[in-house]
Amino acid sequence: MSALPAERRRHLAQIGRRLTAQALVRREPNRRYPILLTLLAQSAVDVLDSVVQPFDQTLSGSESRARVKLRDELAERAKASEDRLGLLEEILPVLADVGIADEDVGVLPREKIGVDRIRAPHAATTPRLPRDHGHLRLPEGSYVYIRQFTPKVLETVRFVGGTEAKPLIEALGVLRELNATGARNVPDGAPTAFVPARWQGYLDEAAAKGDATAFRHYWELCTLLTLRDSLRSGDVYVPGSRRYDNPAAYLFTPAQWEDHRTEFCRLVGESPEAGEALALVRDELDGALNGLEETLEKGDGPVRLNEQGELVISPLSAEDIPGEADELHAELERMLPNAPITSVLVEMDRHTGFLDCFTHAGGKQARSPQLKRKLIACLIGLSTHLGLHGMASSCGIPYDVLAWTAEWYIREETLREANICLVNYHHQLPMTAMFGSGTLSSSDGQRSPTRGKSITARHLNKYFVSEGISTYTHVSGQHSTFGEQALEAGRPLLAAAQDAGEIRGDLTLERIFDMIVAIARIHGSPDYLEPR
């Protein structure tokens, strides 16, 4: 099974899901058993992911609702503090006036403001907020709801982590034992090193008061929320999962890297010898530090030290574009015709034949002379705000004809084939070689908030107030977009990057590209992925 590329395994599993038992029996044994094996293996992976993903989503939903509630509570707290701030503004001038005798400092505010007004804010004093402003206390109200599913998840799924995640893995073992035995109190010496500093005060306060119930609630919430964050970052992974697999599984093994190191270093212009590469990096670092020291000595550069000795970096200024470049850009723009989008699609089809990739879902071979016109109308309508109704009104083709064409011809696989056709044509153009060989790719995700209900939208407090999605775009080194995926926000992007490598691998085997490595830029850091 491991000898088959992941994309091939998923393809065979998809065939197995579509086949009936009778159709599977009629298959030859050398085809039937690989389909059955891949179906079982892929189903096990999908079921495991379907267990871990709701765990992540439910915790994120509870935390997101708590964050919204906390924001409202902080706003109300700020309103309630207005009277106290007004009172302070009246008292401070009296305290700051050195001409007022010390024995009169306490008398004047009482006479001017009044004792009742001074006592009222003091009586309404609210307790000081913890370090996280009470964020963890709000999900604690959903503790009973969270307990309805987390014990089963911890009992069923095995979580593994590295050295940094060892305290968290030990805490998960303690929590499993508490769930299995029905014990209520967290044992002495239970791991707490994984608890973030902003939440440690809750545990210290509960321990100081001897409140074992509160300590259990907060300790369990810290464990579960830290587990969720560690699953997203890759510090903790689930063996056998695809979405939450070990990040090292996506990288070259040492043996594989030895086979690819020379070619890769040639592509990126780096030395294959570690000693030479480190020496070059040290020289580059020394040069950069010397330049930084010179800039700091001037004190008025883009990087400087403030009065507290902290490093201050000014915003980057806009790139200075020479006037000749602007003139050349304007001249080239005047040379380009202002062509309608329909004419562009017709011209591209004449060069590439990409409309022939849109085949009938039922296998129909005959194609009417008007089919390409209908396909172009559908593509424009579906990719713009017009929609099929608006396109039908604009082009004169009845709506039911456009809807039938879109249903039977425009599918995910036909769109992918058409895009591959365009990418391959772009790769053959003489000017394209000036951008590179096309053997490298860059992938990046964009976060977008959503409104209303969506099966793809997820809670992700770092980026969204409510819910949102991630759009993952894959661009080759020749600036052609060969893939784009809409993902659930919070989904680890390594698996999606591997999917892109597999898509690019299809281009390698069947068409033009000589794919060596895909470079995925995930959260600002490069990860080197093996194309499958």
Description of the structure:
The protein is of the alpha+beta class and 532 residues long. Helices cover 57% and strands 9% of the residues. The chain contains 21 helices and ten strands. The chain has helices at 6-18, 21-26, 29-80, 82-96, 102-105, 107-113, 115-123, 143-146, 150-156, 166-181, 197-209, 212-233, 254-268, 274-298, 323-335, 341-352, 371-383, 387-395, 399-409, 412-428, 493-510; strands at residues 160-161, 236-237, 303-305, 311-313, 441-449, 458-459, 467-476, 481-488, 518-522, 525-529. The strands form three sheets. Strands 5, 6, 7, 8, 9 and 10 form a six-stranded mixed beta sheet that branches. Strands 1-2 form a two-stranded antiparallel ribbon. Strands 3-4 form a two-stranded antiparallel ribbon. Strand 7 and strand 8 (481-488) form a beta hairpin. The longest helix has 52 residues, at 29-80. It is extended and about 100 Å long. The two termini are 13 Å apart. Residues 502-532 have low confidence and may be disordered.
